[in-house]
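Homework help thread (please don't just give me the answer)

Our assignment gives two proteins as sequence + structure token strings and asks us to describe the second one. The first is just a warm-up. Here they are:
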Amino acid sequence: MAKLKVENLRVSFGNKSVLEDITFEADNQFTCVIGRSGVGKSSLLKCLLGEVNHQGNITLNDKVAYIPQANQMVPWLNVEQNIYIANKDADINNLLEMVELHGVSRYAYARSLSGGQVQRIALARAIASGADIILCDEPFSALDYLTREKLQELARKIFEGKTVIYVTHDLYEATYLADQLVVLRKGDYDVLKFSQKIDRDSQLFFDTISLLRSAFLNGVDKHRVRALGHILDRRTPSCVLDLRNERCPYPLIIAKKELDKMKAGDILKVITDDPSAPENIQFWAKEAGVDVEIEEKGNKEYAEIYIGK
């Protein structure tokens, strides 16, 4: 059973419908909720927190912790006292080590800490709570770019294996953190599942950003979003051919033979160090009407080619 399940969620304020029939589930994964202003991202989070009346079902099968956007460190309490709010038996030194607050005293107060340090304490408090469901409302949005990037890396590491719902406006942040995206539009939505974590320096990261940005610039057009979902879903190949010891024209010939054995909807992944293979396969795919996606790896030493049956 999924840790978190949302079924046919509907929210209205007066005659204004904010969320309509939203359904998704999350289990030990990072789910980022994105969408333009006013589409109901905060309302969705407030429903999960039990702060907004709604129709439909929400199931939370574990303890919940919440990390807000604003600084929630109680100013008249020091670092350890703020963490003890979540768990009076917390191991403070271990938690400070986990969130990489090196050199920060457990007796320090908020006035002596930077914004990034305060948000690290918020992460530590969430861990100390013992919660397996973490709800986040743009917790790093007020920080400078480099600090935000470091905290994103930290959150991805320390929340691994937990069920995280993370609301953000930042497409770069969502793409880096997410195992799945919930893309909200007025009166509609999509759930896009990532078959792998995406590294910031990968071609897939920039391709995903480009497609998301294009979708958002066009009013989060559902067709663009669903096209992105198709690309992300097909990252899980049905068959992998590592042909790095082959030479042209064999990669294309072998790939075509393997595709003949596969059924419609399957994905073939070809790995080749033949410099002419990507161009040959792309030309053939265009003539055959076959979907193909190419990623160059290892400083262009080899390529990974995804071919849709």
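The one we have to describe:
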Amino acid sequence: MFVRSVLLVLLFVFSCTSFAVDYKEGDIHAIDFHWFQTNLYHGVDQRGGPFKFTDSYLELEFGGRSGIVDYYGYVDFLDVLNDSNSERHEKANSFAKLAFRFSFDAMLKKDLAVGAVKEWYFATEFMNSDSENHWDPTRENRALRVLWLGLGTDTELPWLGLVGLNFQTRYIIENYGASNEESFDGLVFHMNWFKSVYSFGDDFIAFQGYLDYEFLSSLGDDTGINGENFGRTDHSFQTYLGFWYHTKRYALGYGAKFYVNMTQFKHDINFFGNQTDTTGVAHYFNVTYKF
């Protein structure tokens, strides 16, 4: 069903009229920009690994454009309030994501737009987390390091406007000791958007978020110490649907995040004496300062 929906979106995308950035004048820095902000989040019923948790964390987030490079990234510091009641207290508490997309249009100084696709990219994304594996005594203590590589676009969609769409393969460098380490494993469909829906003078409310669908992974065949199924799946889904009130320097936000088999752990099974919880809804509240 999901794959069919993606194909319908692609059919629409390539049938639309296109108006793209013009690089023919030679100045690939004409649309350069950058932004940087810090977000303090409180997340209720977050999923990460096989269990849900509630925690407050600090995020340093940035993005922009410089010549051929479209970039985005953040670093999260969990349990930032050093709260003994946090389910992340005294555990591995940092996570970073860096996404760099390299524009084919800018590199070639040509308009490659087709239909609703305004720009094409070689899209990369790198994720890194602290060393931790407190769920599974049969695996060594290792970190998470994952690289996504593939094709990206800026695409105009009805109502949402310009969105980022990427289709990528995954190279798993480390995955807390899982069987798919040091291999290409699975595919990813990624989408992100930012849509102003209501304005109050210079202030506005935005609908913003992202979607990640990971699939065709071999991790569903992973086995434990007794050769039994290890409670993993071949797919994972998450999407964040946020409504933020923005001013020039500040923002207040709420977002609902929907998960299915988060990080490819099966939902509601016994996992080393604890019941997994990887499918459901989390609630995120944030205050933001923009530099």
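TA reply:
I won't write it for you, but here's a hint about the kind of observation we're looking for: Helices lie at 2-15, 104-108.
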